[in-house]
Amino acid sequence: MEKSAAITKTKLAKIKPIQVVIILIIVAAVFLPSFYFYNQYKQSQLLLQNPNLASSSQERDLVAKVGKLIELPGNESPQIYSVKDRTQLPNIPLFANAQNGDQVLIYPKAQKAILYRPSENKIIEVSPVTINNPTSTALPTATLTPTTFLVPSPTVTSAQTP
Q1: Taking the domains of the chain in order of start, what are their residue ranges?
Q2: Average pLDDT of each block of 10 consecutive residues along the chain (162 residues)?
Q3: What single-letter DSSP state applies at residue 43?
């Protein structure tokens, strides 16, 4: 028994610090990706259980991207719409250069509409708007549809600038 204990002590004494570092790196290389993917899985399950979290996250991301390009009204949240069919849009100057896939951010209190092109990360047009009746729909729903995280589309008319 003394002989086996002596052998174990000598084997442990022969382990160099570099070997300990290599073993720790291998253990970290195995456990860190596992931990990362477990957290991603938990987060995706949380978003599946509560879709409003995903939509508010998408809204915040879009507003943050646009906010880096232009000063946004800070006292309200925008109503966000996606351009689905450019050919069916009303004859409003805001939509003159719109393309399918563009996003429209409408700030009713500030009476401002912003046409944003995510593919180019570019503001295409900014226009003043007047919200006549927030419960009716004047914009064609087949061409300019609310994203999954917003309210029904308002009646929007472009204010003419002199």
Answers
A1: 2-49, 73-158
A2: 58 75 92 92 84 74 90 87 83 85 89 91 88 51 40 38 40
A3: H
